[in-house]
Specification:
four-stranded antiparallel beta sheet, three-stranded antiparallel beta sheet, 3 helices, rod-shaped
Amino acid sequence: MKKIIIPVIIVLLLIGTYLGIYIYSLSKVEIKEIKINNLEEISSSGFTITGYCEVYNNGIIPVKISHVEYIISLDKNNHTLATGFVQGGKIPSKKSVKYPISNNIKWVPTSELILDLITQKEVYATISGEVHVIDLIGIVLSFTEKIDIKKYVVEQIHIF
């Protein structure tokens, strides 16, 4: 009987230790940066916005990100310009992963946006969303980043 109990206790202690370390690592996942790199492919039909959401694992062991979802909305009227969903993956310990943000935004439903880009000094949009860290327990990290999209349009116009 003693021969069975001691190994079982050791296995249970190891499992408990691993679970504790894993839960600790889950609590150390953080959003490092939300970045818009560029507005590309500006045409008469719209433009493409590109960037990323960088998630950092400051834990001891790798953790799994289920997915990242986001909404890009115009600040002036809270009009949704685009939505996105990015499949997650494992993030190694002490490493970060950049999940891409890339959406085509049409001018037609946002003709007010064209007018604002012409007449206003600044035109702000907000990218807001959630990083879903899900394994044994579910953790959701929220983010919000305000960007002046006019400066990116002006940069693109100066390239041509």
